[in-house]
Amino acid sequence: MSVSDWIQVVAILVSLAVSIVSILQTRKSIKNTEKSIKDANRPYLSIYFETIDTIDFGKYIVLKNFGKTSAKILDITVDGSPKSHGMDIDFSSMIGATISPGQKFSAVLENDFSENLFYSIVYQESDGEVHNDSFSIKTDMNASLPWKHKSSKDLSTTIKNATQAIIKSFK
User: Helix or strand or coil: residue 97?
Assistant: First the structure.
């Protein structure tokens, strides 16, 4: 073989290697894109503590789907249940139910309830993939926050307080 034949063989091998690397890189990019799309469009269920500071003060445990697709709830468990306070906030009635994107369910807590709650939720996507998430909820985290209740017999002050309460609830 002549030198020019060897140069052609080397050029062919280099172009083959570059092509193979390009194909592998493209495949990896496609897989990453598919994973990103799937993660962006999956359900994300969360259980969290919420307070509403309006005319009156309220504490809530909330179950919400922050994702973009529905999820079927397979199991929900709770440790530190407020049953000792006469409340049953285990969300067990939601097992087997489907929760839509943006949908939320909330349960009221007594204002003096201050125990930590630990929830575990197992839910399934529409394609069958199962997720298991755990949440630790500190129900007294607002205990040191200042809160002032303005009560008045004046109608305009009452209307102002009610308007502020409505605006706060939409924020």
Answer: coil
